[in-house]
From TrEMBL:
GO terms for molecular function: ATP binding; ATP hydrolysis activity. Belongs to the ABC transporter superfamily. The lineage of its organism: Bacteria, Bacillati, Bacillota, Clostridia, Eubacteriales. This is ATP-binding cassette domain-containing protein. Residues 5-249 form the ABC transporter domain. It comes from the Bacteria. It comes from Alkalibaculum sporogenes. CDD domains: ABC_NikE_OppD_transporters. One of its GO terms (biological process) is transmembrane transport. Keywords: ATP-binding, Nucleotide-binding, Transport. Gene3D superfamilies: P-loop containing nucleotide triphosphate hydrolases.
Amino acid sequence: MKNLVEVKNIHKSYLKVGMNFSGTRIQVLNGVTFDIEEGLCVGLIGESGSGKSALSRLILGLDKPDKGQGTIHIQGQPVRQWIKKNPGKISVVFQDFASSVNPMYTIREAISEPLRASGQRGNIDAKIDELLQKVGLFLDAKDRYIHELSGGQIQRICIARAISTNPKFLVLDEAISSLDVSVQTQILDLLQQLQVEMKMTYLFIAHDLQAVSHLCNKILFLYKGEIVEELHSGQLANVQNHYAKKLLGSVIPFEI
Ligand SMILES: Nc1ncnc2c1ncn2[C@@H]1O[C@H](COP(=O)(O)OP(=O)(O)OP(=O)(O)O)[C@@H](O)[C@H]1O
C-alpha cells in the first residue's frame, strides 16, 4: 500500500516561557519518524505533554519543525506545498468542540461556512442535508442554534464541517476525549463508517488506548517526544517498550 504521509526525523523545540529571554528551549519532539499508509487509520497515543498536539500542528502545516530538523511529506510533496495545491483535502477535528464552532451559529450557518470558504457554489442546502445525514443528525432542525445541542451533537457538526470539503486525510486530535463514554462509542462508530464510505486516511490522536485500538490499524506510542513503539493493532501482545507495556497493561492484563 502507498504511503500518504511520511514524517522523517522531526525535531521541534520551543522557547521556554518566563526565562527572561535567555533563549532556553524545551525539546518537545526528538527525531520522530513514521508513515501513514493511504486508507488506513494510524493512532498516536501518549500521555499529556508527550508532544502529540505539537506533532499534529506540524502535520497540519500550522507550524514548522526546527530549521533543517526533519521533513513531512504528503503524497511525496512537502506538507505546506501539498496543502496549498490541495485546498480542503486535509481536515482536522479538535477535542474542544465547544470553541471549534461559534455557539451563536445555527446548524445551517455552521456547516455552510466551510462550504462557502472552500468556494462551493450551487445548492448549499442540499449539501448541508447530505452532510447532516452522513453524520447522523436530524435534517429538519437546521435553524437550531449550536448552543442548544449536546456535546455529542456538536462534535457531529464539527465532523460534518471537517468532511464538507471531501478531505483525503483527517486528523482527529483528541476528538472524542471530552465526550461521555457512551457518546464516545457512537462517535467512534461514525468515524469508522465515514472512513470507509469516503475512503479517508486518519491520524487519530488520543490518550485512551481502548479507543485507539478500536479504530486504528497501527498504533504509535509517543513518550517524551519519541516514538518508543510502533505496533499493528493485531500485535498488541508483542509490545516491547516498557512505557507502551504500562499503557497496555492498564487495558489488557499483561505481566509487566
Ligand atoms: N507553542 C508552544 N510554546 C511553548 N511550549 C509549547 C508550545 N506548544 C507546546 N509546548 C510544550 O510542548 C510540550 C508538549 O505539548 P503538547 O501540547 O504537544 O502535548 P500533548 O501530548 O498534546 O499533551 P495533551 O495530551 O495534554 O494535550 C508541553 O510541555 C508544552 O508545554
